[in-house]
Amino acid sequence: MEADVAQAHNEQEQEDRCMDAECFQVAKTKMIQPTSLQDPKLEKLKEALVDWINRTLKEEHIVVRSLDEDLYDGLVLHHLLGRLAGVHLPLEEIALSSSAQIRKLEAVMKELDKRLDQPDSKWDVSSIHKKNLLATLHLLVAMVRYFQPELELPSGVKVQVALVEVSGKGIRSEVQTEVLTEESDSENLSRTDGDANRVEQLLKMEAHKVALVKQGLLGFVNRNMASLGLQVSDLDKQFSDGVILLLLIGQLEGFFIPLCDFSLTPVDHAQMLHNVSLALSLLTHLGLHVSSIQAGDVVTQDVAATLKVLFALFNKHARQEEKMAAKSIGDFHLLHSK
Questions:
Q1: What's the confidence (pLDDT) of residue 196?
Q2: pLDDT score at 198
Q3: How many CA atoms lie within 13 Å of 22's alpha carbon, on the beta-carbon side?
Q4: pTM of the complete model
């Protein structure tokens, strides 16, 4: 035991010496925003995962209390791998030094990744070892989905995350929304039907009331497009080619859509259809569930289809703006009360 402690001490000294300029590289990490950490849905997901781990490892007499603190050294993941996959790696039970923990994690996660088969996984050895809660949650959810798909986890859990990049030039960050668990089919259907019903109710209102709702949505769009120097004046027509819609999605979600992926100046129906189809695909990937909306309807300037897309974006991103928007949208509350 004393020899192990001495070795761990020596390895730690070597790690400390590696903190000079030569070892410093650009580092990127994602962290859950403090406001999202208080989300009851996130708390329920964490509780469900802790309960799943403890039930799985009950015979091992291992008890996990914190996902943040109890999984970084590889011990719990090692035992989960053994219980769930029947894989028993010849690794030391307790890794004392940081480097030993990383070696253990590398071996365990190599076996896990073979089974989970997610090339674009949102976790890696470094993030797990650094106690990154977001990466740990993504890994555990993937494990549940693969090894025990019958287990019901809280659905529709999303968090706001800060993407932080640290380099010799300083620190740069941006905020994004990340999905931890998809919504259930019943929730998807309810939300899709709800938005559709609201739009149908809207279009049955008197013309001046419809105009006021469109004015409110227009304000939401233009507030988020202002940084690009763009302004929309006609909701019915300016979204039909998909360009403004793609740029709006990029602004709201905090990412850049490569210009080679769409036509910035579409000249025919095919290019417009491609743009709108790409936009709807992105929205579906982001969890907005607009599969019932046909790209062709948006291209042909179908008012209902366009409004359904905009309402989906509004419902996700404008919760905090509702009071301000309601001032310029007469009877807007009727759309939410029915």
A1: 52
A2: 63
A3: 4
A4: 0.51
Both structure tokens of 301: 């300037």
Could you tell me which residues come within 8 angstroms of residue 228 by beta carbon, excluding any fewer than 6 positions away? 247, 251
Q: What is the pLDDT of residue 30?
A: 82
Q: How many residues does the chain have?
A: 338
- Mean pLDDT taken over the chain: 79
CA dihedral 131, 252, 158, 26 (to 10 degrees): -10
How far apart (Å, rounded) are the C-alpha atoms in residues 89 and 74?
A: 12
23, 31, 191, 291 from 105: Cα distances, Å:
22, 21, 40, 40
Which pair of tokens denotes residue 58? 């009950």
Residue 18 has pLDDT above 50, yes or no: no
Biggest CA pair distance of the chain = 82
Smallest Cα–Cα separation from 81: which of 53, 61, 101, 102?
Answer: 53
- Percent of the chain residues topping a pLDDT of 90: 28
The Cα-based distances of 122 to 2, 110, 130, 230 in angstroms read 38, 14, 14, 34
